[in-house]
Amino acid sequence: MKKEKIELIKDGKRLDGRGFEELREIKIEIDVLKRADGSCYFELGNNKALAAVYGPREIHPRHLQNEKTAVVVYNYNMAPFSATDRKRPGPDRRSVEISKASRCALDPVILKEYYPKTTINVYVELLQSDAGTRTAAINAASIALAAAGIPMRDLVSSIAVGKIDGEVVLDLNAVEDNHGEADMPVAMIARTNTITMLQMDGRFTKDEFEVGMKLAEKACHEIYELQRAALIAKYSESVNANVNVNVNTGRGEE
Ligand code: ADP
Q: Which of ligand 1's atoms lies nearest the C-alpha of 94?
């Protein structure tokens, strides 16, 4: 439920100084967890998401197996210390709903048919939250899946658009989310503009929806480039490291 109305736009700027079409700062780090097959730490402003991917691996209990494809399981969780009010530990209706929507957002890009009878587990922990956590989590999970070597058609990128003080704006923070009029998280395959998740809390007019979708599309393209750049940087780093190892080994054998 939305709380009392406060002024969210002053002199054409939002309370955190951003313009209407401005993303919060993004930071990406890949393979931060040793035990996971792939992992990613993703910051979106004050949101801090940590994604870990395990699999493909054997599925237990076996009756959950799918003869034809891998089964993707997505777990979204907000740490008890991630919000200003302590969040009650453990799953709740919200996290179950977000986990399901996020799995559906990633499902179309995962080549699940390559690994029948297995499971791919995606865990995302929110260490700090400031609205837009599901979008930060999907961005992190998408990179972690790629880092785990899971065959994918493409990456999925995600961001929310919303309405505050009657203006359509990109990437709401918690104050804007709490006191604004609408919030619409979107996930898409940026290269083809294919929407894989679209949710809406509040109301947009048809025109506002169209403006919002254009903003989300543009931002997803920006996020996609950052995700891609982070993976390429990480991959080239490993290739260079391997080249060094090979060169050294070769010399040693001569
Ligand atoms: P999203 O984080 O994807 O925008 P919501 O719109 O449901 O999802 O939540 C907005 C913000 O409200 C969260 O980022 C978090 O900061 C806060 N929040 C949500 N659920 C809780 C909770 N159970 N306890 C404390 N804070 C919460």
A: 7
Q: Residue 1 pLDDT > 70, yes or no?
A: no
Q: Taking each helix axis from N to C terminus, what angle separates 133-147 and 206-253, rounded to the nearest 10 degrees?
A: 30
Neighbours of 243 (CB within 10 A): 10
Topology of the domain covering 18-239 = Ribosomal Protein S5; domain 2 (3.30.230)
176 lines ligand 1 (CB under 6 A): no
Which helix (H) or strand (E) segment holds residue 105: the answer is helix 93-106
Residue type for 224, please?
A: Y
Strands 118-128 and 71-78: parallel
From first CA to last CA, the distance across the chain in angstroms is 72
CB atoms within 10 A of CB 200: 14
Q: Is 102 touching ligand 1 by the criterion CB < 6 Å?
A: no
The Cα–Cα gap between 112 and 118 comes to 9
DSSP one-letter string for 179-229: HSSEEEEEEEEGGGTEEEEE--EE---HHHHHHHHHHHHHHHHHHHHHHHH
Query: Quick check: helix, strand or coil at residue 157?
Result: strand
The predicted model scores a pTM of 0.93
Q: What is the pLDDT of residue 246?
A: 42
Residue located nearest, by CA, to atom 27 of ligand 1: 83
Domain map (residue ranges) of the chain: 18-239
For residue 151, give Cα distances in angstroms to 93, 133, 146, 230.
31, 25, 7, 18
> Which tokens sit at 19?
């313009």
Residue whose pair of structure tokens reads 């998280």 in the numeric block: 185
Measured in Å, residue 82 CA sits from the centre of ligand 1 at 9
**Residue 240 pLDDT > 80:** no
